[in-house]
């Protein structure tokens, strides 16, 4: 009798667990409830968006790039999320299908993004590319940048979070070009020029340098000293009109200072870069522990990321509920006056322009 009761108890417990998982999954699928963005005024004949027609929530959403789970494509389209990031897939046709799943029917097109950066190759299942450390000359860098840009364009990818222009890579030993600071600057410049000739946005990273030389910021809070040599490749790519620059989470001092904060949330550092540069400023992924462990509250982190004048926030926690919460937190900060809506409008204008869209007030 006791054994029978125990068996019944286990059965009931399992049934409760299954029911709880079902309802948790149902909640994820059902939330958030977002209406279709029919309010957006987009003149297709002139390719012009009326910025004032977007709600504040939609403008904040345009500043977010998240992981491209196709199950979330419809809700991301309704939320007006700005971009999606793709990891490895089995074939080129899988990438094309995923890109089309997001872009088809989108009121505002997505940034479709990858990390093709030397030894980090999401296409390794079907396409080989060289590590940056194996590129010997600026001419080779241009050739590889052009070939990779052409491949990305054909695959439907419009943003590459590459190249790494840090002077050294002591952690992975393959993500950076090698040579003197001047040689690295020249190779970076040539690679970017080749990629952007194909209409693909290149991203010089990780500003202001020294991101790959000691502890891994994916795992740790990192402190580094920056000198003028570290800044040289970034200054060169700015002069050559690189479309985007990614800021790291490293806490820095020296030639530039983040004021004892991770660089991505340092207003003086990011705004100092903005004073030199008119393109997109992109954060490194915000769930890396080098940033996340600095904060007791993710909500405070969200506010600081937007206050710091970053244009594009990489948040690969792709649960639509969590993204909706992030948007609500930032919306609240704007409504309280902590962040100006004019500052948000500046970023959204740069984002839409980078997507090839004209912006009207």
How confident overall, as mean pLDDT? 92
Q: How many individual domains?
A: 2
Q: Note the main sheet.
A: 8 strands, parallel
Regarding CATH, which class of the largest domain? Alpha Beta
Described by the principal axes of the CA atoms, the overall outline is globular
Describe the structure in your own words.
With about 350 residues, the protein is of the alpha/beta class. The chain folds into 2 domains: about 30 residues; about 325 residues, TIM Barrel (Alpha-Beta Barrel), CATH 3.20.20.300. About 45% of the residues lie in helices and about 15% in strands. The protein has 12 helices and 13 strands. The protein has an 8-stranded parallel beta sheet. It has a 3-stranded mixed beta sheet with strand order 1-2-13. The longest helix has 29 residues. It is globular, with a radius of gyration of 22 Å.
Features of the shown structure:
2 domains; 13% strand; TIM Barrel; 12 helices; three-stranded mixed β-sheet; 361 residues; eight-stranded parallel β-sheet; alpha/beta
Topology:
Layout: H1 2-30, E1 42-43, E2 48-50, H2 56-62, E3 64-67, H3 73-79, E4 83-85, H4 92-103, E5 111-114, H5 138-155, E6 159-160, H6 181-196, E7 201-207, E8 223-226, H7 228-239, E9 244-247, E10 251-254, H8 267-276, E11 280-283, H9 289-292, H10 298-307, E12 313-314, H11 320-335, H12 341-354, E13 358-360
Parallel strand pairs: 2-13, 3-4, 3-12, 4-5, 5-6, 6-7, 7-9, 8-10, 9-11
Antiparallel strand pairs: 1-2
Helix pairs in contact: 2-11, 2-12, 5-6, 6-7, 10-11
């Amino acid at each position: 009798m006791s054994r029978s009761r125990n068996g019944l108890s286990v059965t009931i417990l399992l049934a409760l667990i299954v029911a709880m998982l079902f309802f948790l999954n149902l909640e994820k699928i059902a939330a958030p409830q977002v209406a279709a963005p029919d309010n957006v005024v987009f003149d297709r004949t002139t390719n012009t968006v009326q910025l004032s027609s977007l709600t504040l929530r939609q403008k904040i959403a345009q500043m977010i790039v998240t992981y491209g789970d196709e199950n979330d494509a419809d809700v991301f389209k309704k939320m007006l999320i700005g971009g999606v990031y793709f990891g490895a897939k089995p074939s080129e046709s899988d990438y094309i299908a995923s890109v089309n799943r997001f872009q088809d029917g989108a009121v505002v097109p997505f940034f479709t993004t990858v990390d093709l950066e030397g030894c980090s190759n999401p296409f390794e299942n079907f396409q080989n590319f060289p590590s940056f450390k194996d590129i010997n000359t600026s001419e080779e860098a241009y050739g590889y940048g052009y070939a990779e840009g052409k491949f990305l364009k054909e695959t439907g990818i419009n943003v590459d979070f590459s190249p790494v222009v840090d002077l050294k890579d002591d952690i992975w030993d393959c993500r950076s070009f090698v040579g003197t600071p001047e040689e690295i600057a020249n190779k970076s410049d040539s690679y970017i020029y080749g990629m952007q000739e194909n209409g693909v946005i290149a991203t010089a990273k990780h500003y202001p340098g020294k991101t790959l030389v000691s502890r891994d910021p994916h795992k740790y809070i990192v402190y580094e000293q920056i000198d003028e040599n570290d800044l040289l490749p970034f200054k060169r790519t700015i002069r050559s009109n690189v479309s985007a620059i990614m800021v790291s989470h490293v806490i820095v001092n020296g030639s530039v200072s983040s004021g004892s904060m991770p660089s991505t949330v340092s207003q003086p550092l990011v705004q100092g870069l903005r004073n030199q540069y008119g393109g997109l400023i992109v954060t490194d992924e915000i769930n890396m522990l080098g940033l996340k462990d600095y904060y007791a509250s993710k909500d405070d982190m969200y506010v600081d990321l937007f206050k710091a004048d970053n244009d594009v926030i990489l948040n690969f926690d792709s649960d639509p509920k969590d993204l909706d919460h992030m948007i609500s937190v930032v919306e609240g900060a704007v409504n309280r006056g902590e962040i100006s809506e004019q500052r948000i409008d500046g970023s959204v204008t740069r984002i839409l322009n980078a997507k090839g869209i004209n912006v009207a007030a």
